[in-house]
Every structure is written in structure tokens, then in C-alpha cells.
Design brief:
This protein is mainly α. The protein is built from 5 helices and no strands.
Amino acid sequence: MKIEKMLGGVVALGLAAALAVPVALANSQAANAPQTAGKEMAMHGGGLEAAVQSLNLTDDQKAKVKDIFADAKNKKQAVSSDASLSEEQKKTKMKELHSGVMTKLNEVLTPEQQTELKSKMEAAKSKAPMHQ
């Protein structure tokens, strides 16, 4: 009889653990959702900046790139906090901002650095989960 009770307890414990794993996993994925959204935009912020910084920049290029990203950050914050814009308008403005940043970066980078950056961006884009 004791063995049956112990076995029943072990089975109940195992069942509880088996049910807890998917719940814990779901909670973990929900907590990571904002991070995933950030990864989808990997090249639209810190990811792009890190990719550019890895290009063996000269001191002059580093200073110019720093200014480009500082300006972009200020503009991005202005767009994000502009309550008069719809989400679609914000998205459009962010794409325009990104295009402007890329244009400015290409003026600073050598052709070889531009090619390397493009490769890094394409690699990051292929690793990013598809959004929609």
C-alpha cells in the first residue's frame, strides 16, 4: 500500500513537472518578445552601429560615425515620441531615417568597408526571424 501511495505521488509529481515546463517556456518566450522585436530590427540601431564599429575605422571615421549615430538617435527619439504621427507614419519616417543614415555612412566609409557592411547586414537580416 505504501508503495502505491509513493508511486502515485511520484506520478503526480512527474505530471505536475511535465505540465509546468510548457507554462514556464511560454512565460519565457513572452518575456523575450520585446528582445525578439529588437533583434528583428537588429540593423536599425545597436546592431548597425556594432557592425559599423567592427570595420576597422580610422579615428576620423570613428568621429564622423559617432556623430551620424548620435544625430540618428535624436531623430529616432523625436519620431517615436511624436504623438501626432500614426504608427504607419512613424514606420515610414524610421525607414527614411535609416536610409539617411546609410547614405551618410556610405559617404564616410571606403568602398571596401561599404561592401563589408553590406555583407554583415545581409547576414544579420538572414538570421533575423521574419516579422509579420
